[in-house]
Design a protein that fits this description.
Blueprint: H1 3-16, H2 19-26, H3 30-44, E1 49-51, E2 56-58, H4 60-83, E3 92-98, H5 100-117, E4 121-127, H6 134-137, E5 141-145, E6 154-167, H7 169-175, E7 189-192, E8 201-203, E9 206-208, E10 214-216, H8 219-227, E11 232-236, H9 237-246, E12 250-252, E13 259-267, H10 275-288
Parallel strand pairs: 3-4, 3-5, 7-10, 7-11
Antiparallel strand pairs: 1-2, 5-13, 6-11, 6-12, 6-13, 8-9
C-alpha cells in the first residue's frame, strides 16, 4: 500500500460519509479501507476522522486535509486525461458547483442530460450560494450569476438574465402600481440579502434603499411571499418565469432600463481545457440561449431584450 492509496481511501470515506460505502466504491474490504485511513493518520501524526458507534465526522485537520487531497487527486486525473484520450473523450469525474435555486431549475436537468450522453462520466454536483474556492475544493467548474470578484480563474459568459420588479395582482389591486422607481420607497418591498451584502435594489447604474416586511437569503422565499401578496420583489427572471406565465405575479416598471446579470462558467486556468469541461460548457450555452430560454415566453418587450 502506498501513500496515494491512503489518500484516496480517506477522500472517499470523507465524501461518502461511510467506511462501508467507501469500500464498495473502491472495491475493497471495509477493514482494508479503515487500515489505509489509519495509516495515513499515523504518517501525518494527526487525527483526520472522529469515529463513534453511530457516525463519523472530520476533525478540523481532516477538513483542511480533504480540500488539499481532493485537489491532488483532481490534478492526477487531469494529467491522465492530458496524456491519454481525455483531451477528446468525455470520461472520468466532473465536479460542478452552482447556485441553489438556479441550479435546481436549470442546471440539474442539463447535468442529467450530459450524463446520459456520456455514460463513462461520473458527476458530483453541489448546489449552494456561497463563493467556493475551486482550486482548494477540487471543482472543475462553477456557475455564477452576477458580478465576479477578481481572481485567477477563467470566466466564460454563458448567457444573461434580467432583474424584474414584480408583485401579485392582489397586492397591486390593494396598493396600486408604482409609476416610477422612486415610488418603490412608498411600497412594501421584499429584499434579498446574503451575508453582509446590501439589501438595496439595483436600478440601472444606481441603487435604491427600500423597506419592507421580509428579508431572506433565498430567492424562492421572496417569490412565495410576493405571490402571497406581501409586497413587491426584485427578482432574477429565472426565479419568476413560471409565476408570471401563470399570472401569480405581474411584472411592473417594465418601461425602466433593464438591469442584467451575467451568467458565467468559472474554471481554473490551464494549458488545456479537459473535454468534459468544454463539452459541458457547450451544452449549457446552447441550452440556455441568449436571451435565455426562461425569458422567451413571459411577454417581455423587444426593447427589454436588447
Amino acid at each position: 500500500m502506498n501513500q496515494l492509496e491512503h489518500i484516496l481511501a480517506f477522500v472517499r470515506v470523507a465524501e461518502l460519509g461511510s467506511y462501508t460505502r467507501a469500500a464498495e466504491a473502491l472495491d475493497l474490504s471495509r477493514t482494508r479501507v479503515s487500515r489505509q485511513v489509519m495509516a495515513l493518520e499515523a504518517s501525518l501524526g494527526a487525527r483526520l476522522i472522529q469515529r463513534t458507534t453511530r457516525r463519523l465526522h472530520l476533525t478540523e485537520a481532516g477538513e483542511r486535509y480533504l480540500l488539499r487531497a481532493q485537489g491532488i487527486l483532481q490534478s492526477l486525473e487531469d494529467a491522465a486525461e492530458e496524456v491519454g484520450q481525455g483531451t477528446s473523450d468525455v470520461r472520468g469525474r466532473l465536479r460542478v458547483n452552482g447556485p441553489m435555486s438556479f441550479g435546481t431549475r436549470y442546471l440539474a436537468p442539463l447535468v442529467a442530460q450530459f450524463m446520459q450522453t456520456h455514460p463513462a462520466l461520473d458527476v458530483r454536483l453541489d448546489l449552494n450560494d456561497r463563493r467556493v474556492d475551486l482550486l482548494e475544493e477540487g471543482y472543475d467548474i462553477a456557475i455564477r450569476i452576477g458580478s465576479l470578484p477578481d481572481s485567477s480563474l477563467v470566466a466564460r459568459r454563458l448567457t444573461r438574465c434580467r432583474l424584474l420588479f414584480c408583485a401579485s395582482p392582489g397586492y397591486l389591486a390593494a396598493h396600486g402600481h408604482p409609476r416610477s422607481v422612486e415610488a418603490l420607497t412608498e411600497h412594501r418591498c421584499l429584499r434579498y440579502r446574503s451575508g453582509q451584502q446590501s439589501a438595496d435594489w439595483q436600478i440601472a447604474s444606481r441603487s435604491l434603499t427600500v423597506n419592507g416586511p421580509l428579508e431572506s437569503n433565498n430567492g424562492d422565499v421572496l417569490t412565495h411571499a410576493a405571490e402571497a401578496g406581501l409586497g413587491i420583489a426584485q427578482q432574477p427572471s429565472f426565479l419568476v418565469t413560471e409565476s408570471i406565465a401563470s399570472g401569480r405575479l405581474v411584472p411592473i416598471l417594465t418601461q425602466e432600463p433593464a438591469v442584467f446579470l451575467d451568467v458565467h462558467a468559472l474554471y481554473p486556468a490551464r494549458h488545456y481545457l479537459p473535454a468534459k469541461v468544454e463539452r459541458f460548457i457547450e451544452l449549457l450555452t446552447a441550452a440556455w440561449g441568449d436571451p435565455p430560454v426562461w425569458e422567451q415566453n413571459i411577454g417581455l418587450s423587444p426593447i427589454a431584450q436588447q
